[in-house]
Structure formats: C-alpha cells, structure tokens
Amino acid sequence: LILPSVLFVQAFAQGSFPPEADAIGTTAIHKDSSVFSGWATTCIVTRGPQNILDPSLGLASSGVASNATGHSGQYGTVSLGDGGTALLTFYYPIVNGPGPDFAVFENAFNHYFLELAFVEVSSNGVDFVRFPSYSETPTNNQVGGFDQLDPTAIHNLAGKYKVNYGTPFDLEDLIDSTMIDVNNINYIRIIDVVGLINSQYTTYDVDGNMVND
Questions:
Q1: Are 134 and 151 in contact (CB under 8 A)?
Q2: String of b and e for 161-190 (b: at least 16 CB within 10 Å)?
C-alpha cells in the first residue's frame, strides 16, 4: 500500500501535559537511550476485534506476541485490536527509582496519529493497579481512524508518542496502592482504550472523562 505524502498543519490548543517527541518539554524517551537497562522478555497477547462495532471482521491479527519483547523496533509490531491486551514480564523486577521507571513504545508514524492504551502493573500477576490516566481530548465529536490527537491533552496513556519514542511511567504515581509492591513489579499489562465515545464500549480516564481516540 503506497500512500501519498500529505502535509498537515497542526492547530491544536495547548493542553496540560508535555508535548510531542522532539519538542521542548517532552518526556519522550528514545529507544536507544542509555537509561534503559532491560526489555520485556515474554508477552502474552489477548486479541480484540478489528472493529468492536463489527464483529464479523474478526480479531486483529497483525504480528505475533514475541514482537513486543526485546529492544523496541527489533522484531516489528503486534496489533491488540479494540480492547485487546498484552501482558509482559521481565528478567528482573521493575522498582520505583528516581523519575520514570519504565516506558511503553507504540508505532505511530508521526506525532499525532496516536493509538492509546491503559497501563497496569502487578507484583504477583493476579492483582493489577492501573496508572491514573488523563485525556483532555474533546468529546463533542468522535475521533476518526485517520484523525489526529494532541499529545499535550494526554497523560499516563501508552501511545502518546510516535514510533521510536517511549511513553514513560513513574511507579511513584502508585505509591499508595496496597495491592502491589512498587519495588517488585513483575508484570505490565497494556489494554487498548477502544476510544469510542457515547457507546457501550466507552472507556474513561481517572477523572471520568471519556477517552476519545
């Protein structure tokens, strides 16, 4: 599939959160940064449908689960589908150190065609705690498949940054949780947000806002 080159002029209002990768004030971390000490070693994917409103299309099928392991970009991608999940494990537990403790990578081809996901962590693989996510994307209209999102309206959702740049997560955000040990995180679960508004499949951020993507 060959797509024509298209020039997009951004006219986003400035949101409350850090901007896209390469911009001043971004929190994006490049995949080759020296801050990374390890990568996921196993991944189990539970596929969601290609289009949750049309089950006849079947489940997402692109890629294999092992593509989500190892250094970002080494093996390609894996599609979760609407509401699909990826459960990742690591050679060593992740601990709550200074600043961000891990990052999640997605494959958006530019700064604004973003696909978002909730992020949850667990110490024992049974009890998971979700990072408090925030979406300030307007919900008066549904974001379409080729519409764009403003990264400054998104926080603590995987997929905020384009390919090769990880979205960081800080376990300090979960320090008060009694269901996990923030110094012994062995599992990370990525859950596609679906992104529909005014639907039985709508998902919400920590403030009860609909997550529109």
A1: no
A2: bbebbbbbbbbeebeeeeebbbeebbbbbb
| Residue matched to tokens 């971390």 | 29
**137/9 Cα distance (integer angstroms):** 18
Q: Measure the CA–CA gap between 73 and 77, rounded to whole angstroms.
A: 8
- The pLDDT tens digits of the residues spanning 162-213 come to 999 999 999 999 999 999 999 999 999 999 999 999 899 999 999 999 999 9
- Number of Cβ within a 10 Å radius of residue 40: 20
User: Tokens 């959160």 correspond to what residue?
Assistant: 17
- 121's CB contacts (< 8 A; 6+ apart) are 94, 128, 129, 131, 171, 174, 180, 185, 187, 188, 189
Which amino acid is located at 85 in the chain? Answer: T
In the numeric block, which tokens belong to residue 47?
């596929």
Q: Where are the beta strands (DSSP E) in 95-146?
A: 102-104, 117-122, 128-130, 134-135
Give dist(CA 141, CA 131) in Å, integer: 26
Residue 29 sits at the vertex; the CA angle it makes with 27 and 33, to the nearest 5 degrees, is: 145
Q: Kindly indicate the confidence band of residue 12, based on its pLDDT and cuts at 50, 70 and 90.
A: low
Backbone angles phi, psi at 57, to 5 degrees: -75, -15
Residue for token pair 């604004």? 112
**Element holding 93 (H helix, E strand):** strand 85-94
Q: Residue 153: which region, alpha, beta or left (left: phi > 0; alpha: psi -120 to 50)?
A: alpha
SS3 74: coil
Residue 49, helix vs strand vs coil: strand
